[in-house]
Prior knowledge:
The structure holds two protein chains of two kinds. By secondary structure, chain A is an all-beta fold.
Amino acid sequence: xxxxxxxxxxxxxPVGSPLSLECTVEGTSNPNLYWYRQAAxxxxxxxxxxxxxxxxxxxxPQNLSASRPQDRQFILxxxxxxxxxxxxxxxxxxxxxxxxxxxGAGSRLTVx
Amino acid sequence: KNEVEQSPxxxxxxxxxxxxxxxxYSVGISALHWLQQxxxxxxxxxxxxxxGKKKHGRLIATINIQExxxxxxxxASHPRDSAVYICAVGSGGSNYKLTxxxxxxxTVNP
Lengths: 112, 110
């Protein structure tokens, strides 16, 4: 069976510090991978998606970046966090683009 | 861009009641997803449907493509059903993207 792991679960970071959130999927190959953000009072927003190693598409301009160094690994990064980066970040995968999404447990980021 | 509206925003029910959550969207889609988000934040996919009706246990999801509307029903609601229910619509073929509603907060009291 397939599983998705996301970490860390919670982090508090000062403004201007770097960020690295990691997501890995087990039990499948060549998954479509997604990073979403859920800000307070707002719906889920797609940040990045990837259909293969090294292939990253960005949905919104921001100071975040994503990388996919291995087939089942998806990393969300920032060199310098802003207050507005606070939120709940979710990694997800699907077999093909138009298919059921499976979400990780999420990472709650607070930037102070 | 697709606009996704959910109603109600908040819903409180007594255990055993029949629950209906509605979702409307503005542009034609490939599929519609219903998701459940528990208080801890984890999200589970409940249904993905493009026509008709799907049933899983006490949950039923329907979609009317012509009216651009979907409903999620919960029969014999239970306190463990308390969660945020999120509707998302997808379109774009190979460039498939999801647009999410803001969610409906359901509280079922014993």
